[in-house]
Amino acid sequence: MTKQFVNNVLLSRFDELIHEGEERWRDFQKDEKRVIMDIVGFAKWSTSCLNLLDKLSISTNRFVTQFEVWAVGGPGKQMNIGGALGVLKSARHEYSGGLAIEYQLSVSAAVFSGLLDEATYLFQKGYTRAASVLLGAALEEGLKARARAVPLALSPRDSLSPVIAKLKASEVGVLTEFEAKRLEAIARLRNDAAHGGEFVYDAATVESAIKEVEATLGRLLSAA
Question: Which region among 30-39, 127-136, 185-194 has the lowest average model confidence (pLDDT)?
Fold first, then answer.
């Protein structure tokens, strides 16, 4: 089973902001008037929290919307450090267990799903070469999104094979060696289809590749 990758840089930032939030909450409770005295500091803290939470998404980005309920002041609204801190701790707990996914993954899931739908349509019409090009594009789009979420540094020149290599690296572990070999075969299929020349793959091979890409990206771009 491929491990669920959790970004330790994000966890460390969570801990820093939670620690600061706890200090602000203690100061607030000691104040007899129960007023947030350091508005500039609170605004700086809450903005940093929102910047971090915005990188995570559950459904409609519940963490951000709930944090804003407690942390964003204005006409008719009252800021609440304790409530905001509770949301931040909840987000940290969910993310550390691999239950929160990066927002870009949910977006990329929709993108790759559309490309695979087109690839499947072309395959059903008998255009196996064009279908192979599209399924390769879906695979590259999805794997790059997963790599950025780790995060891994990608250059504009990184094509499908280099991204696969980075995701199977021992220190990352998003892909197993076995999975990487299967995806490399699909990368070769895509390259042979896209670069002209003789295309010797039969329909069964292309159909199997479509299913492989769908299953792999469905897993990598989900919260399960």
Answer: 30-39
End residue of a domain, out of 96, 124, 139: 96
Q: Are residues 110 and 203 in the same domain?
A: yes
Residue 125 pLDDT grade (very low, low, confident, very high; cuts 50, 70, 90): very high
pLDDT at 4 over 60: no
161-192 per-position pLDDT tens digit: 999 999 999 989 999 999 999 999 999 999 99
Same structural domain, 139 and 120: yes
Range of the domain at 64: 8-96
Residues 136 and 42 in one domain: no
The model's pTM is 0.56
Identify whether the C-beta of residue 29 lies closer than 8 Å to the C-beta of residue 194: no
Q: Does 2 map to a domain?
A: no
